[in-house]
Amino acid sequence: MTDLIDSLPTDRDLSDDEWRFLIEGDYDRQRLYDKADKVRRQHYGTDVYIRGLIEISSFCKNDCLYCGIRRSNAKAGRYRLSREEIYACCAQGYELGFRTFVLQGGEDSYHTTEWVAGIVSSIKERYPDCAVTLSLGERPREDYEIWHKAGADRYLLRHETASRPHYQKLHPPEQTFEHRMECLYHLKQIGYQTGAGFMVGSPFQETKELIADMRFLREFQPHMVGIGPFIPHHDTPFSDCSSGTLEQTLTMVALTRLILPQALIPATTALGTIHPQGRELGLKAGANVVMPNLSPVAVRGQYSLYDNKICTGEEAAECIGCMKRRVAAAGYRITIDRGDVKLF
Prior knowledge:
3-stranded parallel beta sheet, TIM Barrel
């Protein structure tokens, strides 16, 4: 099946055996990464889009078994950014060249529909040339509609796994696979640039689950796909589990680029956490987005989804300066642009 890589990308769905070979087979992975990089260059050249990540709250009502800010973790540091703190992050980010702000947080009931809508509309009024991305978890469709009308352009909601049995092993009974998928379809129907995504190497994950992820992405056609290695957090039930590997994660990034040639795919912080050159290698395997942290340094350590997260002590200017150098060294260039998916 070694000639399978030469035939990618393809309009047909692959067989289970073909997917299995690409995901776990014995072949030169660099050929796959090079093919993915060639495809991303056909659509985006060497441009890498930057997103200013603002982690607005570490409170979360959910109890995902893998997450460091799960509600059952009594040792987690908790904080909420005020409106003024969020606006200050945006002001600094705009001066540094960011044209997308990502408001991310746990599913925090303090953040009412109206509160979030007010934040979004104010950011859009202050920076009309910028995009606003939300990543605030599962909400009623009405909330998503109100936020979209307020000016939110994109929404990130990782599906985590496209296997219902696997999803149930990673979450408590009150969080259902069906509701997560329903939210994703609502977001796309409303008109958001919609992001899905999954962990690589999560507990109980086998190749069949990764095949299901690929088939879901192919069917759903998200505009953005966040893929990162599972990394355990010491205060969760999965504290003793192994992390996802660099090779596993780069393979899934590359395959995602090949089935979704125009997608926006981040080289994630988690990749940089498991390997010093992880984000650069992610770019070389088909990724085209990086997300430096604009959150106040004083709270970054409290937004601890997994252990040993990098860049928690750097000021925003340090983060973007370091990122620009790393991206350039990898052979790409950071672009000051909203960085919309080509389909939009």
